[in-house]
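## Example record

The block below lists the input lines for one assembly entry, exactly as stored, with component labels intact.
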Amino acid sequence: MKFRSGVSAELAAVDGRKRLNMDKVMTVVCFILLLIIVVIPIVMIIYNAFFNEGKLEVEMFVEQVTESKNLEAMWNTLKIAVLATILGTIMGVFYAWLLGRSDIPAKGLMRALFNIPYMFPPFLGAMAWDMMFNGRSGYINKWLVQLFGLKGMPININSVWGIVFVEVSYYFPFVFMQVVSALERMDPTLEESARIAGAKQRQVIWKITLPLVKPAISAGALLILTTSLAHFGVPSILGYAKGIYTLPTRIYAVIYNSGGSFDGIRQGAALSVMLVVVVAAALILQNRILSAGNYDIIKGKSMRPTLIKLRGAKIPLFLLAILTLVLIVIVPLVMIVLISFLKAYGLPLEFKNFTLAQYEKVFSANGTIDSIRNSLFVSITAGIICMFLGTLVAYVVQKIRPKGKGVLEVISMLPYAIPGTVLSIGVILAWSGRIAGINLYNTIWIILVAYLARYLSFSMKTSSAALLQVHSSLEEAARVCGASHTESLADITLPLIRPAMVSGFFLIFLPAMREVTTSILLYGPYTRTLGVQIYSLRDAGMIPQAAALATVAIGIIIILNTIVTKLTKDRKGV
Amino acid sequence: MKKLVSLILAIALTLSVCAALADAPSGKVMLYSSMQEAQLQAIEKAFEEKYPTVDMEYYYAGGGKLVTKMTTEAQDGGQIASDLVWLGDPSDYEAFKANGWLEPYISPETEHIAKEYIDADGYYTAGRLVTMGIAWFIGVDEADAPKTWNDLLDPKWNNQIIMTDPSQASTTKYWMAAMMQNPKYGEAYFQALKDNGVELESGTTATHNRVADASYQVGICLDYVSANLIAEGSPMAFHYTTEDVITMTSPIAIIKGCANPDNARLLMDFILSKEGQEVLVANNLVSVRDDVEMQVDTSAIAAINMEVDYADLGANLQNYLDTFNKIFGK
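Predicted structure tokens for the full assembly:
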């Protein structure tokens, strides 16, 4: 470290003031961009929650925070997130172990299939489950009633447990993917020595394997927790009609029911502060329970762990895995496709009621093509800008290390913990004419700004990790050979981290394509995104048409994901 | 000489074509509407066929959501991003007028439209008629289906009735306010509805689909939405009540300071014209004109129409909504 700064200082002396300026410019640009993209919206939320027309006014905030409906929403948000995290973690770890360490058949294929739920927008899953198990009219419910002559509907998906179930089935891959790769990198000799020392299989799992992958479990669980706390789609589709609110759906309702008045947006801001507090509390709690230790015993990919023989349990566990896949991947998909062919919602699923009219309607509505174009445009643009901006921030933090780099890092990671709904409110408050007369409301740019804030941390993380692996001696070698600072950056550092930048792009592009939480509050007449269009069609009661568009969206997502997997051959599909 | 003449002719021809093109309407026109998308598409198609150089666009959302949107846009002196607005019922238009959002315009087509369908100051004109009635799942016998508003209080429909949330849909809001205002029904009626287990759905079409998929046996539904769904094959049926029918005019108005005022007038004229109204009728809507043929006998409905006090409605709409929300615990 000392040596490097010594060299840097000498190099700086070679360049004279120029080198200093270049770094300074990059640092300043970083601070300014983060200020605009991240800090201003957040400050606007806090300001508007507590101030009105320049005066401190806490009454509104207190009133909102103590209102029973909002407290109930907060309780629901917590309950759903905690249950989803616990169940999703158990499920993720179990299947990671089963597919990573046991001799279960068809492992490669199953692993690929278990990643599928991660690709799919959970709110489409919620739509499908609502069609099947709506407490009043679900198709499968009705069928069960007929089959067994039941008195009432057997399953009611429009409940807290229903929401938890759907969230778990789409979020468990967060833990699954992390743990599978940790298990792969684990040093198998540790397990072997335990076994030699006389430990039983169960003891090995509890005492050796699990503690070793604990950091991976912890990271995955954290992702489930924050995602679930901030999630809008599933609780909105399953809970709204039954009066089950979470904070994100409550914020949406408050803003819409208030007739769009500024008071409504302020109430939304107050609830946003509440939601952020809940997220922060959950993060601290999670940190306490699963404080991630550092285990250096996880090494490179060199060793092949011994597989555990399942013996008699092999076939039942294999069937269980298949059943899980069918239940969470195939069944909802088939349901959405079937409904998309239906003439009118409510008709029995019989061939004579099938038609292609819904697809015709979808493609003749100007909203659909617009929404696909809008989503492609914002997702690609956000992906590209974040790719460069995230790399810039990572470079400044990792390599330039200016004073206040900690602040920079925290700011860029902030939106990661701040729910999309909250960011939307901040962006509305900031960019609808209140600052410097800039009014982006109702334009595509306001969605883009929100996406930039929301996804910046994704690309920053991947670029940071890549930059850490580029030793500064490489850049210094180039400098010693006479390259200017810019040249060494362009010829050495950037090419080395390019793969990470590209995967950072896809990490943003794919989720942005199916996003609904942020854009639902920001769309204007010409700027519906694909997610918003499906959501509004369903909300307006045009369920078969929403299903048709959802089928199209799933097609687009599958195509994009295939392209990504092809492009990044050795990396896993994102 | 010949060359010169042909040159002059050519120039004259070019100029006249240019002039004709300049006269022909062109550009865009934007309509905010709470009608169903299929119907908006039909209007768009017919309008663009007649005026191929004008690009008509529409933004479709529930009435409540559109009012929200307009309020947000107009905030701090902003401009509403549409040229026209066409909602389901007249109750919000008095507020629009008072806010200074509307541009007065009396279309020449109003010759064939009854005077009571046109705002006295010319700020808005009815574009169609909408009537609230009762729809039921086909599993229910037509003879058993409720025929009056009071029939809905029959305990046999306990937990089996759905209606739209009045905060979300302006047509239901109007119906609710008209019922609240009438001493025969009033607050007590809605309390009784609530006691009979009536539930709310967030959008008008969604309410209808809840009847079609048998979630609820009966719904407080709109004539044209039901007719549309039935035409598509939805397993539901609809009739008007036999007394106290509540019909709304669905007004169309031009936004003040809009980007395309000429095209806005053009579109309004087209919608109110015989040609435009026939497009509506072909799509199961009810025309406001006296010279358009349709299946619905508007004069028979008008005979059993319930009186609505517009002034009271304008003044107390929010109070009625608050009362409703209190009863339904929202």
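Chain B is about 45% helix and 20% strand. Chain B touches chain A through 49 residues (CB under 8 Å).
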